[in-house]
Each structure stands twice: as C-alpha cells, then as structure tokens.
Amino acid sequence: MTGAYDPSGEGAKMSFAEDMSYIDYLSLDPILGAQKLRSDAHDEMLFIIQHQTSELWMRLALYELNAARETLARGDVEPTFKMMTRVARIFEQLNSAWDVLRTMTPSEYTAFRDQLGRSSGFQSHQYRLIEFILGNRNTAMMKVHEHRPELHAMLTQELGRKSLYHVALDRLAGELGVIFAPEVYRLDAPHQADPAVMDAWTAVYRDPARYWSLYELAEKLVDLEDYFRRWRFNHVTTVERIIGFKRGTGGTSGVMYLRRMLEVELFPELWNLRGQL
Fold it and tell me: What pTM was estimated for this model as a whole?
C-alpha cells in the first residue's frame, strides 16, 4: 500500500511564507471577498458572480480591443486578427454564462430582486466602452455615468478617438485608393451605412485574392459582431425567461429595451454587401 502523494518529493515548493503564491499573484483575497450578499436568498450568490465574472471578461475584451485598434492603426494587421479572434471568443464565453444564470427561476430571482434597488446591467461603463470602441456611440447613455466623473471622463475620452471600425475603414480606403466622406468618421454618433463604404468592401469581396488582408479583416469584424449579437440575443431570452416583460430594475422597459438593441448593426456594410455578391 502506498502512502499519500507528497509533491515536495519531486521538488514542488510547499512553503510560501517569504515567496509570492498563487493567491498573491492573482490578488484572490479581494476578488473572492467581493461577493456582498444583501439577502438570505440562495441564488443571489449566482447572480452576483455571474455579473462580476462578466465584468472581468469585459475588462479583457477592452484590453484586446484597444490593442487591436492601436496595432491596426500602425498597419500591423496580422496580430490584429489574433486579438479580434480572442475578443470573439471572449463573447462566446460570456454567451455560455447565460446558460448558468438561466438555471435560476423567476421565483428564485424574486426572492432578492428588491435588493438590487435601481442598479442594472445597462449601467455598466465597461459595456458602454466596448460599444463605443466598436462604433455604437449612443451619447444619450453618457448621462447614466455622470455620478462617477472618472468613468464619465473615460467615456468622453473614447468619444474623441476613432473607433476600431474607423481604423479598419482607414486601411480599406488606403489600399483601394478611395476617400470616404467625413460623415463616415463621425465620432459622437453610431456608425450609419454608407454607399461608398459598401462599394469598397464589395470590391474586396469580389476579388479576395487581390485584397486578402482586407478580406480577412472584414471577416474578423463580422465574426466579432456575430458573437456579440449572440450574446445580446441570449441576454434577451434569459431576461424574458426570468422576469418576463416586467420593467428592468434600472427603469428600462426590460425585454423590449433589449430587443431594440438586437436591431443595432455595428458594421452594417459588411452584412449588407452579402446580398449584392
């Protein structure tokens, strides 16, 4: 009979009184201590962790999107593809998280819903930043963040920069030798489909061998929006399954508000051109 396995026999370090440990490196103490339950309801822990982990994934998405924009602006296209693929997979991860939340029934949510007060996911400044970076710049939503001047300033700063799609359009225009109207690059409003942009992307899709890097860039953008749309759709169905058509805790129309968000297109020309090929 063999004794219990002792990893120290193979050289594993077992004492961390003077060295950095796993817990130290990841700062797990504040992270694991951040779940402040406001009720005795069993499912409140699920609700809090679902949203906290989503914010952590969004933190990584922002990190990658900012890097992708800067890298693409420098003309370093291939690393940009890797970053955009990673963001798409982050949204796949966020998408799967709804499956866990959907194990909570309406009765279980009702047991602690009043504890949320007026807080709501649509108040997430990180989600707003992701939308702004991708080009959906609805400045009406800025008011939600006025009570936190540092977050409001962060969003304002983002509105002064070109979106990721703007940077992609710069590359498209440069390689095809075209010039897009200034309205295409409007910083303080959602991007609207433009015929000249549509024609330029269509030319790329009609000759992918000639414009391979642009072709791949376009497909990476479509892939990213595809996963983003799936996340939005699953958000709607999860909310409808749990609260039906009640108003949201933040005062929105709930499911109806989320359904309107499904109509938003981040890169409309890349979707519309498919009907012309």
Answer: 0.91
